[in-house]
Write a structure and sequence with these properties.
The longest helix has about 35 residues. Among the domains are: about 40 residues, no CATH class; about 120 residues, no CATH class. By secondary structure, it is mostly helical.
Length: about 260
Amino acid sequence: MGFTYALPDYVHDVSNPTNTTGTLVATTTEEIDEDADGTEEEPPSDANAYLRQVLGDEEDIEIVLNEEPPPNTANAAVLYQIELEETAELAATNDRMHQELVRSELARLLPDTNGKESTSDAFKQLSNHQAWFPLRSPSSSSPETDVDKAEAALFHEWSPTYNIDVATGPQSYHAFARAWNIEAANRFRAWSQGDEEVVQIRPKNREFLVQHYKDGLAYEALCRTAPRNDLHQLVMESGPSMLGGVITLKDTLTIG
């Protein structure tokens, strides 16, 4: 079985690919004639047909750069609505950025502030670094001031409402100390607003009030056991009792 084939007239002869100088040459079955001016003739038509088959014979397509886009044929109302939305979004973004900038500047420049405070909270802050004083002891030899008298009178008035044996609740001495400090804050507020008749009192904690109650019991026991002849002198030296009352000469006759 054989194959039939046909080659174009213009083919390369590879039997002798190089010459004596080592330069690649190709021989053809037909010699290529040169014109008088030294130019070669075009290869046979079969080679041109082959090249046209491989490369194509279409003309080059012109590429146009920076071509203008086709005109937008959208509805004018739709374009106007899109423009409005973009403008509104840009304005909202600018407003948010402006508000954040204002808040940051205010936080940097303004001092720290707290919420609305009660009179008691304000008084606690004003008296935070002040020393706490217990009520004046009945055995104290120091002169009794107006503040001492006001505190003794308030303790004598309020002490029956509270019970020293109750740990928690409205009758405990914790509640007593809370009510005492609120009264101290209210008196301070009245004094700061120009009330000259109010007498201020100093804040007290539960331990001060408990100790004051115990000192009062001890003082009364001392008065009961003191000799009758020395009791009046003891009262004159010590002053009022811890419960806010003043032992008079009539009391000395009934004690014991």
